[in-house]
Each structure stands twice: as structure tokens, then as C-alpha cells.
Amino acid sequence: MAYRRGYYAVDPAKSTADSPGKISPIVAALQRGTPPFAQVVFEARVLAANDPAAKDVKVAPGPAGEMTLPAAHRYLVDFSADPHALTWTPGPNGVAHGEIEVSMVAWDADSRRVNYTDHAFAVDLDPQQAAKIIASGLPVHQEIDLPAGAVYLRVALHDLASGRIGSMEIPLRVPNN
After folding, report:
1. Nearest Cα to 83, choosing from 152, 146, 12, 159?
2. Domain extent for 37
């Protein structure tokens, strides 16, 4: 039997030549091939914009993502987050306030980033909305343009109040047409 007797660890709080600053947890969650983060549990449905199941969705005009892609294919990502994993602060008239960040990074087969999105927003729920969300999950809709070929889409949901993150990687085969 052979095994390592030790290892060299890098203190994440200290800067080095390879790591000039502290890495954001959301950036770490979006790296291709990293294990999923499970502090915020969510489901995600990914559909091509031309999929018959997405016929009732109004696609946002303009590019979806921060990188310009020639001949891009629009994909729709619908999240349903477990509201129990998010931090809600009480507001006036029974309103529950939360703040979340939804991020997506598309990687190609060679682990090159081909597009990304990052949106942070506040969610305010009145008591009726909160009861519905508790029963069915917090819905969030995002869109991203993807190039043809093998794409690995990393999606993450970040509760800004607590710092908890949920993430997953979704392999896709984007057609050429």
C-alpha cells in the first residue's frame, strides 16, 4: 500500500503569486468540474429557446450574457430554490425581504469560458406570496447565449445575506442549427 504522508496547503487568507487575492465563494462554485455546493438547494430546468416546452416564454431581446457570441443559441434556465435555505428579514406589513445572486458560466470542452451572467436582486414577498413560495419554491428565470458544441453550464444561487451557495454543472450538447 502506498499513500501520501503529507501535503502542502495554501492559506486562502494570504495572497501569493498564484492567488493574488481572496477568491469569491461564488467564483469558486462556478469553476468547471468542481463539486456542487449544496448550502442552497434548488432545481434547474434548461431549455433551448426554440424548444416546444418553452413556447409560452417571452425571450428577452438583445444578447444574454456578458460575452458576444456569433451564431449564438439562446437557452432558458428556470430555477426553483428552496426558500427555507434563504435568509428572509421581516419588513413592514409582514413583507419578507431576501437578496439573492444568480450566476451562470458556460465552459467549452477545453475548459474555456464562453459566456457568463451574474444578476443580484432583492425579493420582497407579501404574506400571500410567501405562503405560495414556501409551498412551491422561489422561481427565478435567467437566459444565456451558448455556442454550438459541447458546453458545460455551471449555475449557482447565492444567498447574499448568509453567504450560502448552491451550484451544479449541467452538460449540454448545443446543436449547430
Report:
1. 159
2. 25-56+69-174
